[in-house]
Amino acid sequence: MQEPDAKIATPEEEVSRVMQICNACRYCEGFCAVFPAMTRRLSFGAADAQYLANLCHSCGACLHACQYAAPHPFEVNVPQAMARVRRETYTQYAWPRPLGVLYRNNGLVFAIAASTAIGLFLIVAAALRGSLWKTPGGDSFYGVFPHNVLVLMFGPAFAWAAIALGIGAARFWRGQAPGRASGAALAEAAGNALSLKYLDGGHGDGCNEEDDRFTLLRRRYHHLTFYGFLLCFASTATATVYHYALGWEAPYPVLSIPVMLGSLGGLGLLVGPAGLLWLNVRRHPLHGDPAQKPMDRAFIALLFGTSLSGLALLAGRETSAMAVALAVHLGCVMALFLTLPYGKFAHAVYRCAALLKWSIERRQPSRVHLPEG
Questions:
Q1: Element containing residue 281 per DSSP (H, E)
Q2: Which of 98, 123, 343, 366 sits at a 20 to 30 Å CA gap from 326?
Q3: CA distance 143 to 147
Q4: What's the CA gap between 231 and 312, in Å, rounded?
Q5: Which candidate, 271, 325, 280, 324, places its Cα nearest to that of 298?
Q6: R_g of the chain computed on alpha carbons
Q7: Spatial CA neighbour of 168 closest among 92, 106, 103
Q8: Residues 6+ apart with CB under 8 A from 78
Q9: Buried (b) or exposed (e) across 9-36, using 16+ Cβ within 10 A?
Q10: Are 361 and 180 spatial neighbours (Cβ–Cβ below 8 Å)?
Q11: Residue 226: which residues within 8 A CB-CB, separation 6 or more?
């Protein structure tokens, strides 16, 4: 075990240090998947540190229970050490690799991407329509932006995001070499991800506030955000079927499936990100990596702006402001697509991979022999 005052050169080495201390203590073994996964190891290389870091949900329970946390000389802080390694994971496995540096300046990247995309859409809308403030009359959204123009712009952006995230996750997965996934492992990992199981603090009461109180708010706001995002995606998918299979063009009636799904998802993407931002602002710096707060808040703000602009478009689609509302909403969506692989969204991809590895690993014989008693 490294001495507590030894110089730590990398975030992975800090995770190795605290995990060796935790492995000797094991008080938190029942808190979340990190600690039983830890007990299967006697040493912690870079791949182990990255796996455990992405398995950690940063609930804070172990920090508040730890007898070796500051002011103890060991200064064990598992959530903070894990958060720093997660950012290193995103940077290392980013595709193209040089763009991994964007994780370190992501607040600025989001702001520039959003403003540029919105400005581009406003300019294009003005050029195609002649005036952004014309009364829409019987025009559809495609009267402002022709359908083929939208496909040519959003198709490559969405494909880029999916490919970049997919390649990064594949690189991470190859480095972990978890073994073959059974159907039971896949089902368990999916259930843990969809329920956010490990945001319950290991006891069902939720994450810790800085004054040690428990709260389930972080889990609930994450659920609203996640399922709001999925509902909006389902709305877009349904609208695609309407357009190509049925020949129906947007905008659709208020009681149509795409609009109802989008409205419910949009409300989730308002309440969820607003709550997460509130919790992020109030969260104690020891509960995570303060250097990553700009990245966290920028992604939350962009999700909120995308939802707010979409609901504003729904409310104003029969007014003369429809074209402006459409341009702003599409600009937010474009900014979201372009920055998905290089922002906070990456944590969902890598965390799902880590959860799957844990579901595979826990079904395998332990490679560390532990004496009975």
A1: helix 257-282
A2: 343
A3: 9
A4: 17
A5: 280
A6: 23
A7: 92
A8: 18, 22, 28, 34, 56, 62, 63, 66
A9: eebbbbbbbbbbbbbeeeebeebbbbbb
A10: no
A11: 196, 272, 348
What angle is formed at CA 198 by the lines to CA 158 and CA 82, rounded to 5 degrees? 75
Per-residue pLDDT in tens (0 to 9) along the chain, 373 residues: 444 445 557 999 999 999 999 999 999 888 899 999 999 998 999 999 999 999 999 888 899 889 999 999 999 999 999 999 999 999 999 999 888 888 877 777 777 777 788 878 777 777 776 655 555 444 577 778 888 888 898 999 999 999 999 999 999 999 998 888 999 999 999 999 999 999 887 777 778 777 778 888 999 999 999 999 999 999 999 998 998 888 888 788 889 999 999 999 999 999 999 999 999 988 888 888 888 888 899 899 999 999 999 999 999 888 888 888 888 888 888 888 888 999 899 999 999 999 999 999 999 887 664 444 4
Query: Tokens for 198?
Result: 């490990």
Token reading at 40: 């299967």
**Token duo for residue 47:** 């791949």
Letter for the amino acid at 281? V
DSSP 8-state assignment for residue 251: S
Q: Half-sphere exposure (CA, 13 Å, Cβ side) for 126?
A: 7
Q: Which residue bears the tokens 């341009």?
A: 327
Which residues lie across from 214 on neighbouring strands?
208
Closest CA to 283 of 35, 50, 79, 12: 79
Tokens of 71: 């002011």
